[in-house]
Specification:
By secondary structure, the protein is of the alpha+beta class. It folds into two domains: 226 residues, no CATH class; 69 residues, no CATH class. The strands form four sheets. Strands 5, 6, 7, 10 and 11 form a five-stranded antiparallel beta sheet that branches. It has a four-stranded antiparallel beta sheet with strand order 1-2-4-3. α2 crosses α3. The longest helix has 16 residues. The radius of gyration is 23 Å and the shape is globular. The two termini are 32 Å apart.
């Protein structure tokens, strides 16, 4: 039988949540740009737990064929927050002598209306197989690096004949240009308008653009940020301030909006230090806030209540 694995394996931890000291020690091995210090960014590194299923050889039969078993592990992977990447980006510019990096928004994709949205935003519509469309708001930006002393700003007129707008762009001796970071977010769901959609799109795009340019990109986590992963797992933003609600006794969901009720419960779970258990449960069952059915949301609510108050909540 394969031996159970626990501890750090590469750039993640399996079946073991590292202590703050262990995480800080690992983070010191991550290369940073010259002049930047690890201790300035460790506070912005978040551990994201995920259930991972792997196949292993447990032995061999009499014919020499491998006996393959499937095992599940709880894996902790470090991700940077968008705020940490932004600080890193600003500090990078502060220590550079010859170059300056600029986050510059991209023009909207060809043929896409901006509908009077702020610079960098655009509308996108996706249709399913039955032809029903979903409206998204998108944001796209990228990092360009210029030689200091050569930068000038110019106003460029863009858009179609019935919608011309002016955007300010940097011009100068271009040293490097990186792939765009783009994110689209649905502006409404089953339960109404998402008033946070523009912020999600902009924050996600900025974080990804900085990751594309190599600003605080951690081994093993690609260009994704902790904010991306928390949103994907339905846990809300990756900030301590999100846990502002008191961890009082759980009451039956009087809120007719199960998605909003679940968000409130995840805030309580975070404050109680039990959010990772719930996120692992959601990951194992492939339940995400973005595409969960109403039945899945109700099931997740019951599970969250059971974790918070096991003696009162229903079995999920």
């Amino acid at each position: 039988m394969p031996q159970p694995r626990s501890g750090r394996i590469g750039n993640r931890w399996e079946n073991h949540r590292p202590t703050g000291e262990e995480l800080a020690e690992w983070f010191k091995t991550v290369p940073l740009h010259k002049g930047l210090k690890h201790e300035d960014y460790i506070g912005g590194i978040t551990l994201i737990p995920q259930m991972v299923k792997e196949k292993e050889v447990s032995g061999f039969n009499q014919q020499g064929q491998p006996l393959i078993v499937e095992k599940s592990s709880l894996v902790y992977t470090p991700y940077p927050s968008v705020a940490a990447r932004i600080k890193y980006f600003q500090d990078y510019n502060a220590v550079q002598e010859d170059v300056v990096a600029i986050l510059q928004v991209d023009p909207p994709p060809g043929g896409v209306d901006t509908y009077g949205l702020p610079e960098g935003f655009f509308k996108y519509v996706a249709a399913n197989a039955s032809g029903q469309g979903t409206n998204f708001i998108g944001y796209s930006t990228r990092v360009r690096v210029y030689r200091k002393g050569t930068i000038k700003f110019a106003d460029v007129r863009q858009g179609k004949a019935n919608e011309v707008y002016v955007r300010r762009v940097a011009e100068g001796e271009l040293v490097a240009e990186y792939a765009a970071g783009t994110k689209i977010t649905a502006v409404s769901g089953r339960y109404g308008v998402d008033e946070n959609a523009p912020m999600k799109a902009q924050t996600g795009a900025v974080g990804r653009a900085l990751g594309m340019a190599g600003f605080l990109t951690l081994p093993g986590s690609t260009v994704a940020t902790a904010d991306d992963m928390h949103e994907f797992l339905g846990g809300g933003p990756a900030t301590p301030e999100a846990a502002a609600l008191p961890s009082a006794a759980v009451s039956p969901p009087a809120d007719p909006d199960p998605e909003r009720h679940l968000l409130n419960l995840t805030a309580r779970l975070r404050e109680a230090g039990k959010l990772e258990e719930f996120q692992a449960w959601c990951t194992e069952r492939k339940i995400t806030m973005a595409d969960a059915t109403r039945g899945e949301l109700v099931t997740a609510i019951k599970k969250a209540e059971k974790i918070l108050m096991p003696e009162k909540a229903l079995d999920a």
